[in-house]
Write a structure and sequence with these properties.
The complex is a heterodimer.
Chain A lengths: L2 E6 L8 H9 L10 E9 L2 E9 L8 H5 L5 E3 L5 E3 L9 H5 L6 E2 L5 E2 L5 H4 L6 H5 L5 E5 L6 H8 L2 E2 L11 E4 L1
Parallel strand pairs in A: 1-10
Antiparallel strand pairs in A: 1-8, 2-3, 4-5, 6-7, 9-10
Chain B lengths: L2 E6 L16 H24 L7 H6 L3 H16 L18 H27 L8 H12 L1 H24 L12 H20 L3 H30 L3 H8 L7 H24 L6 H25 L5
Chain lengths: ~180, ~325
């Protein structure tokens, strides 16, 4: 099982509903976020092109944060989801420095925090909170090993990219282009 | 002209607008660890090759600094941790892929070894020293019997400690400035140079001072070579590493790096040491203090600049 997410950059309007849903669902402390919106404007006026992305932890297959963690607090859970065990985390910051996407942050309680793909919801057959609330339904989630999953189907149908694949991290967050 | 504007709604403290997760604690520790590694390396080296009589400061005097340096380094590291109550997790896990795990276990070996080394020489520093308890005396005889083995452990672990301070940073692919394998040898050389400088300050013997001035001079030459090599590597590499090198070649860290680290920390002390070896009267302490200053600055600048360098996407 390999969980993955695909975000449709053509449908995303950058409303930030996914950000708020995540903060509410996961009780993310005020002033922090586990997912966020990036708007890229590219070109020269008037020939401009825009891309909007809902970004979060890429749950990399070759995750540098898991590799550099000195205690094993950062680990792979079922389906390749990268998780932090708060009571094993010493808050050294190595994983934060190792993430090319800057997807991790120091939780005010001391441990490191990040997106969990809402593993507590997936286990109950639900979608991650961000995917569930998206008003344009632009976030697809599922198992890459299952050819009939929502994410496998859309990735077969549409062109997609991952962020800085040259960093060698093998991300599991795809962007449909 | 092509323009690109990126707007992000993310503002996580200590991560945005650019990484600021490591503050003064980490570079201070990297300096103290590197300095301790340098001193212990020379102590072990000159003991193993039987030159301890010629190098009293290196073998017997300077190592007394190392337990203090290492303890302060450990305290700095502890201050860096944000989840302090769980620090013991470092010592219930061995993670071979994590340089920080290697470092934690290396400190676990080298710190006690530095204490033992001092204990074996304390009678020469304080002639009236008495261990009071019999079991302490028994321990002293035990370690005296295996002193050569202890020196070998110290030699190997001091090199691991010195090189690990650089590898810790170079293992981060996410920070292009750190992501160069030159950083390990560079920090090792810088630690050795700082160690030689500390011995130079403490030494009272003319011969020993001369020897360590020559050693320091050679190491400074190696450091300069490694720095040139590092920038050549960056400029011949990918766009992100070219951008990282630009932090030091016209970017915000240009002045501080070239003036404090390279000129004041390496070239000036090297010139002073050359003058001294040519029998000009230059106080050796000045060169040694500049070397120590440069060594501190190198760590601070690399740690801070590295956090400002990133992948662009």
């Amino acid at each position: 099982m390999r969980y993955a997410m695909a975000v449709d950059t053509k449908k995303c309007v950058g409303c930030s509903d996914c950000v708020v849903a995540c903060q509410t669902e996961n009780k993310v402390p005020v002033g922090y976020c586990r997912d966020w919106i990036v708007e890229v404007t590219d070109g020269t006026y008037p020939q401009l092109e825009m891309e909007i992305r809902s970004e979060r932890c890429n749950h990399c297959e070759n995750a540098p944060c898991v590799r550099c963690c000195p205690t094993g607090a950062s680990h792979f859970a079922e389906g390749g989801i990268v998780l932090v065990t708060p009571n094993q985390c010493i808050g050294c910051g190595a994983c934060i420095a190792s993430c090319p996407y800057d997807a991790r942050f120091p939780h005010p309680d001391g441990h490191v925090d990040k997106c969990t793909f809402c593993i507590h919801r997936i286990k109950n057959g639900l979608k991650p909170a961000c995917a569930a609330v998206c008003p344009t339904k632009c976030i697809y989630f599922g198992d890459l090993d299952d050819p009939n999953s929502e994410v496998s189907v859309i990735l077969k149908k549409r062109k997609s990219k991952t962020l800085i694949p040259e960093a060698g991290t093998v991300p599991h967050l795809y962007f449909l282009i | 002209m092509r323009e690109e504007i990126i707007v992000s709604g993310r503002m996580n403290p200590m991560v945005d607008p650019h990484l600021q997760i490591w503050h003064w604690q980490i570079p201070l520790y990297l300096f103290l660890g590197g300095l301790a590694a340098g001193i212990l390396f020379f102590a072990a080296l000159f003991y193993i090759n039987g030159k301890e009589k010629d190098n009293p400061a290196a073998v017997k005097l300077a190592p007394f600094l190392t337990p203090i340096l290492l303890i302060f380094g450990l305290i700095a590291l502890f201050f860096d941790l944000r989840h302090k109550a769980f620090f013991w997790q470092l010592y219930t896990n061995i993670k071979l892929q994590s340089p920080m795990s290697w470092g934690a276990w290396t400190l676990m070996v080298i710190t006690p070894v530095s204490f033992i080394w001092c204990a074996l020489h304390i009678k020469e520093l304080l002639p009236k020293w008495d261990w009071k308890y019999d079991w302490l005396k028994a321990l002293e005889t035990f370690f005296n019997r295996y002193k050569k083995a202890l020196a070998w452990v110290m030699l190997i672990y001091s090199v691991i400690l010195g090189i690990y301070t650089g590898i810790l940073l170079s293992a981060f692919n996410a920070r292009p400035l750190w992501n160069t394998s030159i950083l390990g040898p560079l920090f090792l050389a810088s630690g050795m140079s700082a160690g030689a400088a500390a011995i130079l300050i403490l030494s009272r013997s003319k011969e020993e001072k001369r020897r360590f001035a020559i050693i320091d001079l050679i190491i400074i030459g190696i450091e300069l070579f490694l720095i040139v090599h590092m920038f050549m590597g960056f400029l011949a590499s990918t766009q992100v590493q070219i951008e990282a090198a630009r932090l030091f070649l016209g970017g915000p860290y240009t002045m501080s790096f070239w003036i404090f680290v390279v000129i004041i920390g390496m070239i000036v002390p090297a010139v002073l040491e050359i003058l001294e070896l040519r029998k000009f009267h230059v106080p050796a302490v000045v060169a040694a203090i500049l070397v120590l200053f440069g060594s501190v600055m190198l760590r601070f600048i690399i740690v801070y600049a590295g956090q400002a360098s990133r992948w662009l996407y």
